Amino acid sequence: MSRPAPTDRRATRGDEPLLSVRDLRTVFYTDKETIHAVDGISFDIYPGETVGLVGESGSGKSVTARSILGLVDEPGAIENGEIRFKNTELVKEGWDDRRGEIAIIFQDPSNALNPVYTIGNQIREALNIHQGLTGAAARERAIELLEAVGIPDAPRRVDEYPHQFSGGMAQRAVIAISLACDPDLLVCDEPTTALDVTIQAQILDLLTDLQQKEDLAILFITHDMGVIEETADRVNVIYAGEIVESAPTELLFSDPEHPYTTALLESIPGRTPPDEQLPTIEGEVPTPNGPSEACRFAPRCPLAVDECREKVPDTVSVDDRVEHSAACIFAGEEYGNRGEEL
Amino acid sequence: MSSPTQGADTGSERGDTLLEIRDLKTYYTDGSLIGGEPPVRAVDGISLEIARGETLGLVGESGCGKSTLGRTLVGLESATDGTIAVDGTDITELSGSGLREWQQRIGMVFQDPQESLNDRQTIGEVINGPLETHDWKTPAKREERVFTLLDQVGLREEHFYRYPHQFSGGQRQRIGIARALALEPEFLILDEPVSALDVSVQARVINLLEQLQEELGLTYLFIAHDLSVIRHIADRVAVMYLGNLMEVGPTERVFDSPANPYTRSLLSAIPGSSTPAPDNLERITLRGTPPNPRHPPAGCPFATRCPGKIKPAEYEGLSDEAFDAIEAFRDVLRDRSRRETGLSSQLKRRLGIRGDGRSVEAIVGELFKNIDLSPKAQDVLDQATEAAELDPEEALATVNEEFNSVCDRESPAEHEVDETGRRSRCIRHRAEHASPGDT
Q1: Nearest Cα to Cα of residue B80 among B240, B299, B293
Q2: Smallest CA–CA separation between A283 and chain B, in Å?
Q3: Considering A165, A173, B286, B312, which has the largest number of Cβ atoms within 10 A of its Cβ?
Q4: ipTM for the complex?
Q5: pTM beyond 0.80
Q6: CATH code for position A331
Q7: What DSSP character marks residue B419?
Q8: At what angle do helices A119-131 and A167-180 cross, to 10 degrees?
Q9: What is the CATH number of the domain that holds B209?
Q10: Does B339 touch chain A (CB under 8 A)?
């Protein structure tokens, strides 16, 4: 088996990870059932790196984001696992000492902004809490931040209210607020999903730009494979609360190992000639309402054999050099061989 | 090869025409009799034909008027001007039973399957709804019809008695499709039917729609902002911007060699390697956002953001950077004059109070850093900068007058750009200018 050895930024960086998530389990207790929304996931983010988390709705990607920020509310709770950020283990030691060092931006900017305060007020509030800036200095910095996120005529717009901002401009303002905390890690939860494609391109450009200038690490969460391909250095694919594959972006797209990743890539309309039917995945993403006892993708998997339905597949390393791994009993084998086994 | 056509859709080999839209305008007014704002020009003069049995993809960004166009075709919005001819009848003139008859021939599928279904009705009742409203045949026949429809969209008999909340997003969209098909329409208007669905579910709904079209000989107007989906499903595609049709033609042609600068920008913005855009198309990141449809530009609707805007005749030698900076400055001025209509800013202006914070001078300094202008251009810029703080409108007028492009003045006619009858609206299609692809 010969594989290209793509240059992985990690191999050359040699840093400690900025964020290290290990065996994270976030559970929601309802009257009817217990939902294992995030069920034992592990991944790292290094300084200055963009790590993608991609999955369908209900896969647990947003719960992962909220867990990292310490924003999981009743009836949910982090039940197990570690979230190590710099030298703090957040689950045990709490988030208070690290507030502001991790910032989050959500899908819908209009929900993230308070309609009764001006944009400037909201940035100044963050500057006051996290950097102790007040008065004219805070105002000046707020204008600088708006300029940094590409809002034209910032000195004027700083005094405007959220309803006076278009969707793309509002998302820029939200990014400006999150930058006011001077974070090291920015968690982006579907930041461009509510935006038009030309505006999405502007925001993605902006994030790349900021990352380079501020050496930000970004956790980029989305369902859009095209967006993840363009933004992330490495990608984790999440399915029903579990990470099923992790690889450098280019490799994930060229040589997916997990049948779910393969199926997900195939169902993008752009990959199929227009006169052919789109390949589909039968069934729906299951709700993980019990502990994992088998491969959760097995009921929908075209390759599944008895073993898949009987035990939880190990996460196997496909290529150590680039940290490519997949949770599938067939991982690491060429597709041709799989056919023979069936 | 580019000759202007007067909006005629010629040279196609498609089936016969189902409907013919001519100069259609749908404006929204805010209802006040005097002193109200100008109307929102959601659809602002569109001419288009839809052939029987085809899928016409309608794409554009939010607010471009694509949903309004769809709603006007069904009679959910009334047209302000223009005609929609179906078998010789202008349906914009219809009302009462004539309109209901037309509406029976159309089904509509909406984006959000969570919101478009009544949670208190069983699936059977939901699908039966239109049948009952139009008093279709007998109750027994209606029930039979509902079971047939469930089967057609890939649902099972027992689903008849269940409630919408018991279904997943993809299944709910199937229910929506079944309801739209209830009265055996010939024409479906699908308004972002798969946008709210996950990609794996989306693929199945798209396959279902294609299969139904083949079985039932349906005509589709498929409205979507996702260009990959359109590339896959549509026979022809129409690209809208700010209430106008910028380009329309066979899907393959439009995607492989987009003729209009807006189509090119839109296609180039799609991220990822599965993009339907041609390989040689470089990413164009557009400046700003579409203009307010209450105040569309006087010339080309896309002129305020167009990467291929034609330089004014006397400034042909101006560098691209300088021209971009001037356009960005106009954006700022436009923005200011639009927003400074409030009482307090008018008062400030009367009293001659200058705005606080950094002045327009600083913005100009930033925009025109490292840019040399001719003495005349510099003079105009200085004048405008001076005026901008107190009267942005005047400053804008000054800049507009000096840097007046043909794109600012003239609304582009439709040009036929290839032998398939593809049409594009851009002044660059005129013989004297470089075509949009060469800029």
Answers
A1: B293
A2: 9
A3: A173
A4: 0.85
A5: yes
A6: 3.40.50.300
A7: T
A8: 20
A9: 3.40.50.300
A10: yes
